[in-house]
């Protein structure tokens, strides 16, 4: 329900007038400050330098002009940067307005990303990371009495005003105060609208009513405001963000509850509070997949954390192992069989390995080559491999035993180049297809190391002495349930005594069996005393999606949260067809229709495997808006990303279509349940489940006709 300007009450109109006047005042003050800063530059000489260049250009020979102009451009750019670096952006200077009535009378504070004050004009913009004021904003509601320590002093008072404001391109466009939501239309008139419609979330173009149709017809994604989720952190999230930097923190919560959001904002606050102890160059974020690494880099930049390095687990392992073993390169196996990889990452191996191998006795025994040889001996010992499988209590199938033995044998075999060293005629070593001789043959594995072995080799080396790695000041592990115990061991070594880290995770999203559990993971990191926060609100997914995700998890689903129920939203659409080709054509048609109506929406078509994603992609491959995303190379532009469940952890799309929910693609086992759960919970607005032939039994029978 909306109320146009004429119908707004006196009080509401007063709020709008007050906020508009406040913004005008802030912008005028900023403009004055900018001019003053410009004058101050003259003393520093940049303006003088620019003038000198101009004078020189007036009388210079023509041949010298390009060079002079280049220098003038550089000086001007430098000037611009210095001027704007210290002042808030006038286009979006703040995201919230707080008025506190305390002992000294009422005071207005504005929360933004850069601190700026002109007390005579009554303007105080405070960086959201600045503790006392921000804590009041995030922890209290309008009308609440507050009591907070402001430095030495205990401050008490009342929160008179607590409003979220959205300023887009210098214009105030939304005001949110408790349940009151006001929006400015294009023509400048203000309307009151229901909170559900305007929730300040990325994506989703409104609320679709029917499961049979995708989207709402609204057609365009709302321009995102410059502060995004920073303005919306809830009290529990802010509490977690503010945990002391030196203290380890474990952030748990269901999919879309804001774990990544909390971890990244904590990083921003730590870097702000103590930049000398926690410089960005010594903080690192590690995530399991490339897609999430790309997303994290995009999220870090506006938080002022552009210099924090973000790595995928694989990339980080290789780089760290090269430093630890002081090697320019390590010959990795082109492909490790999935079961072998699972064996090497399983906690049972961590528990038994030292008992079998023992610590290296001398420094000389800690080269990668020697350690790898000892490790391979253990992998070739059938009794030992059987022991590990037995200890894994059914999480590793018995077929893995022969696979580990065979794979290790091939890695230990003599590399082809050594076998062929007697052939001197180079012509005889060239293949018809131009590939290396050993490619696509078992020889390709000879002399290689598996990526999964790298943390194990570093673990073994560390039993003898230090790894010799540069310490990090703070590490964030996102999707921490995907880290093996050996990997956590290496993280511990990188953190040293500092122990400053943030783990964000959800055991329901582990992509393969074998997560050791949080107590053992914390133990491995040496942070058994970590603070734990369990986020309760599901922000990303609407209620229908949350419910389906729970049903898919079956008995693995955690107890239902007693906190705020998920927001209402579009029902899940279930579409079943006799044959696959029909399902694919249907998906293609639905996508064409949706994109024509909502060109700014983001759509994820998430298949069960890369091969299945290829098949679905064929029906839309000729469309400019369709992208077949492989290896996590998401662009995060509007349009359709066709991908598979192995690449989407941590990501979200306005619309998600699961194109192949068949019994074959999604069998009934725990791992499949968790993977389907990950795919389903990428949805921020509406989900379609499409199937053909025999539908997956993970989808409740009622889901065939009536959405849950
Ligand atoms: N307090 C909040 N208010 C509104 N939206 C929020 C809030 N916290 C987080 N969000 C939004 O919810 C979505 C999910 O957040 P985030 O990705 O941090 O969740 P997550 O728990 O890490 O998810 P996953 O388990 O899938 O990795 C994002 O769009 C984020 O901006």
From TrEMBL:
Q: Which InterPro entries match?
A: DNA_helicase_UvrD/REP, P-loop_NTPase, UvrD-like_ATP-bd, UvrD-like_helicase_C
The UniProt record gives the binding positions of ATP as: 253-260
* All residue ranges annotated as the UvrD-like helicase ATP-binding domain in the record: 232-542
Which Pfam families does the UniProt entry name for this protein?
UvrD_C_2
- Entry's Gene Ontology molecular function annotations: 3'-5' DNA helicase activity; ATP binding; DNA binding; hydrolase activity
Where in this chain does the entry annotate a coiled-coil region? 16-43
- Kindly state a single biological-process term from the GO annotations of this entry: recombinational repair
Which terms are listed as keywords in the entry? ATP-binding, Coiled coil, Helicase, Hydrolase, Nucleotide-binding
- Kindly give the PANTHER family that the UniProt entry links to this protein: ATP-DEPENDENT DNA HELICASE SRS2, UVRD / RECB / PCRA DNA HELICASE FAMILY MEMBER
Name of this chain's protein: DNA 3'-5' helicase II
Q: Which organism is it from?
A: Myxococcus llanfairpwllgwyngyllgogerychwyrndrobwllllantysiliogogogochensis
């Amino acid at each position: 329900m909306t109320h146009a300007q004429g119908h707004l009450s006196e009080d509401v109109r007063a709020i709008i007038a007050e906020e508009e006047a406040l913004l005008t005042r802030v912008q005028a003050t900023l403009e004055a400050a900018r001019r003053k800063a410009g004058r101050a530059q003259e003393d520093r000489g940049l303006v003088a330098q620019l003038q000198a260049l101009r004078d020189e250009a007036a009388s210079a020979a023509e041949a010298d002009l390009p060079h002079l102009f280049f220098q003038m451009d550089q000086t001007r750019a430098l000037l611009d940067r210095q001027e704007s670096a210290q002042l808030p952006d006038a286009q979006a200077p703040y995201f919230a307005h707080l008025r506190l009535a305390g002992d000294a009378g009422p005071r207005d504070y504005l929360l933004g990303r850069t601190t700026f004050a002109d007390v005579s004009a009554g303007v105080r913009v405070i960086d959201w990371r600045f503790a006392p004021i921000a804590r009041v904003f995030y922890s209290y509601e309008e009308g609440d009495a507050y009591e907070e320590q402001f430095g030495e002093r205990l401050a008490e008072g009342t929160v008179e005003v607590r409003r979220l404001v959205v300023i887009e391109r210098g214009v105030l466009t939304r005001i949110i105060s408790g349940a009151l939501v006001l929006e400015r239309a294009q023509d400048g008139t203000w309307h009151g609208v229901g909170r559900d419609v305007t929730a300040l979330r990325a994506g989703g173009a409104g609320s679709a009513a029917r499961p049979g149709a995708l989207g709402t017809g609204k057609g365009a994604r709302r321009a995102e405001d410059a502060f995004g989720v920073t303005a919306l952190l809830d009290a529990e999230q802010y509490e977690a963000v503010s945990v002391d930097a030196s203290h380890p923190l474990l952030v748990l919560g269901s999919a879309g509850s804001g774990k990544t959001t909390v971890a990244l904002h904590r990083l921003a606050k730590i870097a702000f509070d103590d930049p000398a102890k926690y410089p960005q160059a010594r903080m690192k974020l590690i995530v399991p997949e490339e897609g999430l690494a790309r997303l994290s880099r995009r999220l870090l930049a506006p938080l002022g954390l552009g210099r924090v390095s973000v790595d995928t687990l694989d990339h980080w392992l290789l780089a760290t192992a090269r430093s630890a073993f002081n090697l320019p390169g390590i010959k990795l196996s082109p492909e490790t069989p999935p079961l072998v990889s699972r064996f090497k990452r399983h906690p049972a191996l961590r528990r038994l390995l030292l008992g079998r191998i023992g610590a290296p006795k001398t420094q000389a025994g800690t080269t990668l080559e020697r350690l790898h040889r000892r490790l391979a001996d253990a992998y070739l010992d059938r009794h030992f491999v059987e022991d590990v499988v037995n200890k894994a209590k059914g999480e590793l199938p018995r077929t893995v035993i022969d696979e580990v033995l065979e794979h290790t044998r091939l890695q230990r075999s003599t590399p082809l180049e050594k076998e062929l060293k007697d052939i001197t005629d180079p012509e005889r070593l060239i293949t018809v297809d131009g590939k290396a001789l050993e490619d696509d043959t078992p020889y390709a594995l000879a002399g290689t190391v598996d990526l999964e072995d790298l943390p194990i080799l570093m673990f073994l080396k560390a039993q003898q002495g230090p790894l010799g790695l540069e310490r990090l000041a703070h590490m964030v592990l996102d999707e921490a349930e995907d880290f093996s115990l050996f990997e956590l061991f290496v993280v511990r070594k990188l953190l040293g005594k500092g122990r400053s880290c943030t783990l964000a995770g959800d055991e329901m999203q582990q992509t393969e069996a074998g997560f050791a559990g949080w107590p053992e993971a914390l133990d491995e990191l040496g942070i058994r005393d970590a603070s734990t926060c369990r986020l309760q609100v599901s922000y990303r997914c609407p209620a229908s999606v949350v419910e389906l995700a729970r049903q898919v998890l079956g008995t693995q689903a955690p107890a239902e949260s007693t906190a705020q129920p998920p927001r209402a939203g579009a029902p899940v659409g279930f579409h079943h067809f006799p044959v696959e080709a029909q399902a694919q054509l249907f998906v293609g048609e639905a996508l064409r229709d949706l994109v024509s109506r909502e060109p700014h929406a983001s759509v994820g078509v998430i298949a069960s495997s890369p091969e299945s994603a290829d098949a679905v992609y064929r029906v839309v491959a000729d469309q400019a808006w369709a992208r077949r995303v492989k290896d996590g190379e998401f662009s995060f532009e509007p349009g359709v990303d066709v991908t598979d469940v192995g690449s989407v952890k941590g990501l979200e799309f306005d619309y998600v279509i699961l194109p192949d929910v068949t019994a074959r693609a999604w069998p009934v086992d725990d791992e499949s349940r968790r993977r389907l759960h990950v795919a389903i919970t990428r949805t921020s607005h509406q989900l379609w489940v499409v199937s053909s032939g025999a539908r997956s039994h993970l989808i409740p029978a009622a889901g065939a006709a009536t959405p849950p």
